[in-house]
């Protein structure tokens, strides 16, 4: 009898808990929407996006970011969007997290990291442009540690079709990686890992026809922003962090090179050289194409 009475109580308690949780979400949503309206009255803003905590720490340690005294931040979908000024320019800053894609669970759809943070920023706030900055890997031997590159084009080089050795690649693939070419010692070039074809993105744009995708390999950076960036070329960059930690040569800033993005942390010299030879890219990271697209 006691067990029979307990079941309805548990169901009733669970129902009330869910209603209270839903009510709390609604209140938080209304509060966030009101805050968004308030900060947008002060816009437009320049959007700033970094990826990892060390990049964020360095940005804040520079002292260039001055938080807004009334609305220093708004928390949305687990991310903290911070408002303030950098050298007199109004900015909204967020740390997006590593990678273009963040896998959640088998029951949910893939959620983007860089893409989601960028789209959320553009959709909710009065943004006139976005600057994404942080650490990237070098694929160009003419570049050195500490150099700064501002690319004019970015490719997503992580969209593959991976086939067996006898598989036929799609004619639309933009590049091909034969894994057997990297056998050691070199033999007949056959490797059970087969070969990889590099595919283009299916890109949907507000400037295009609705529900019709455009095949896209290179995402172009806005010409106006590149022209502004070109004014930075030749600027003197610091060679030393302190008196005991210095680069072997003064770093340089280069505008107009190509970059690549994939959900792969790249620390492999052979693959780095492949990317440079096939795509002509000078840097590799895990987020830039997601922000640009």
Automatic annotation (TrEMBL):
It comes from Gossypium trilobum. PANTHER family: PHOSPHORYLASE SUPERFAMILY PROTEIN, PURINE NUCLEOSIDE PHOSPHORYLASE. InterPro entries: Nucleoside_phosphorylase_d, Nucleoside_phosphorylase_sf. GO terms for molecular function: catalytic activity. It comes from the Eukaryota. Keywords: Signal. It holds the Pfam family PNP_UDP_1. Residues 47-292 form the Nucleoside phosphorylase domain. This is Nucleoside phosphorylase domain-containing protein. GO terms for biological process: nucleoside metabolic process. Residues 1-24 form the signal peptide. The keyword Nucleus does not apply.
């Amino acid at each position: 009898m006691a067990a029979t009475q307990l079941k309805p109580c548990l169901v009733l308690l669970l129902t009330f808990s869910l209603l209270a949780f839903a009510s709390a979400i609604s209140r938080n949503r209304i509060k966030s929407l009101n805050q968004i309206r308030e900060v947008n009255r002060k816009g437009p803003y320049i959007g700033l996006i970094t990826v990892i905590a060390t990049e964020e720490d360095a940005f804040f340690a520079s002292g260039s970011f001055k938080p807004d005294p009334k609305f220093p931040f708004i928390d949305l979908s687990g991310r903290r969007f911070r408002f303030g000024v950098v050298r007199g320019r109004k900015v909204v800053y967020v740390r997006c997290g590593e990678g273009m894609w963040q896998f959640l669970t088998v029951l949910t759809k893939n959620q983007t990291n860089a893409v989601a943070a960028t789209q959320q920023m553009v959709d909710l706030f009065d943004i006139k442009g976005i600057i994404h900055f942080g650490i990237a890997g070098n694929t160009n031997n003419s570049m050195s540690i500490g150099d700064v590159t501002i690319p004019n084009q970015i490719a997503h080089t992580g969209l593959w079709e991976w086939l067996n050795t006898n598989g036929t690649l799609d004619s639309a693939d933009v590049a091909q990686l034969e894994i057997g070419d990297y056998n050691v010692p070199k033999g007949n070039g056959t490797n059970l890992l087969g070969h990889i074809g590099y595919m283009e993105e299916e890109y949907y744009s507000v400037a295009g026809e609705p529900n019709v995708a455009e095949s896209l390999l290179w995402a172009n950076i806005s010409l106006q922003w590149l022209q502004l960036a070109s004014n930075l070329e030749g600027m003197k960059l610091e060679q030393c962090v302190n008196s005991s930690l210095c680069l072997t040569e003064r770093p340089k800033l280069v505008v107009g090179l190509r970059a690549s993005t994939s959900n792969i942390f790249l620390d492999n010299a052979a693959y780095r050289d492949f990317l440079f030879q096939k795509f002509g890219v000078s840097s590799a990271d895990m987020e830039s194409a997601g922000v640009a697209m």
